Amino acid sequence: MPQQISFIGLGKMGEPIARNLLKAGYDLRVYNRSTEKAEALVAEGAQRAEVPFEAVEPGGVVFTMLSNDVAVKEVVAGEHGFLHRLGHEGVHVSLSTISPETSRELARLHAEYGSQYVASPVFGRPDAAAARKLWLCVSGPEEAKARVRPFLEAIGQGSFDYGEDSGAANVVKLCGNFMIASAQEAMAEALTLAEKNGLQREQVMDMFAQTLFACGIYQNYGKMIAQQRYEPVGFQMELALKDLNLALDTADQVRVPMPLASLMHNRLLTGVAKGRGGMDWTALAKGVAEDAGLDKEQE
């Protein structure tokens, strides 16, 4: 009999991840606040729960992929949360980008009920999730990590273990998103400089992506920024702003100045204030163009 897994959160990332678990042969029970988002997976064989606690089996494994700290806490310990039901020997795997302190708080809460918590935030856009090309950062109890390892192998191309501190994986995730945002700002500024000097943005980026910066971040995001094409939306600007806020909060807690992160926070905040929160975060390049007098508004 196939092993049952629960999955909560079927957004742009959650749905393809859940689908890969279903394709791997696991018996999947899903929950999403907007029920229509579960319909495709139900048609493919998943079971749908009406509230979070109905999705979970006592002593089972539940994955969550949600947009922020509040949403994760709500499905765990809210009115219809699964904390009590998961119970002894259960494991909660959080794929969400949340604060390290929230992860540690959730780990303590689970421990009170005999369950365990594993943080496993992911790197990759929705197309990478669908292709099982995600990179996963993992931290939490060794026993729990060993139990969920086969499931993680079904959704990604590799994982990196950061020990038993449940917040450690989230620190790495925030570091990574800060670095990606900074790389996007650098590409946007460089390509705007090239454009104002009469060069073709795509031609310049193509050279860099093949030589000095021959890696996925520069090749994929660089192409979007060079073409000034901010669709399809893989990661919304408002969520990127949330992550920069989390990075700065985490830095403040341990007294680490991050002037570049502050700059990126302001860039994203400006974009959201201008109504771009629902656009892909590469649209931060619009702000760079506007600062340089190249206002090519296409919204």
Automatic annotation (TrEMBL):
The keyword NAD applies. The keyword NAD applies. Residues 4-160 form the 6-phosphogluconate dehydrogenase NADP-binding domain. The active site is at residue 173. Keywords: NAD, Oxidoreductase. Residues 167-286 form the 3-hydroxyisobutyrate dehydrogenase-like NAD-binding domain. SUPFAM superfamilies: 6-phosphogluconate dehydrogenase C-terminal domain-like (SSF48179), NAD(P)-binding Rossmann-fold domains (SSF51735). One of its GO terms (molecular function) is 3-hydroxyisobutyrate dehydrogenase activity. It comes from the Bacteria. It is an enzyme of class 1 (oxidoreductase). Belongs to the HIBADH-related family. This is 3-hydroxyisobutyrate dehydrogenase.
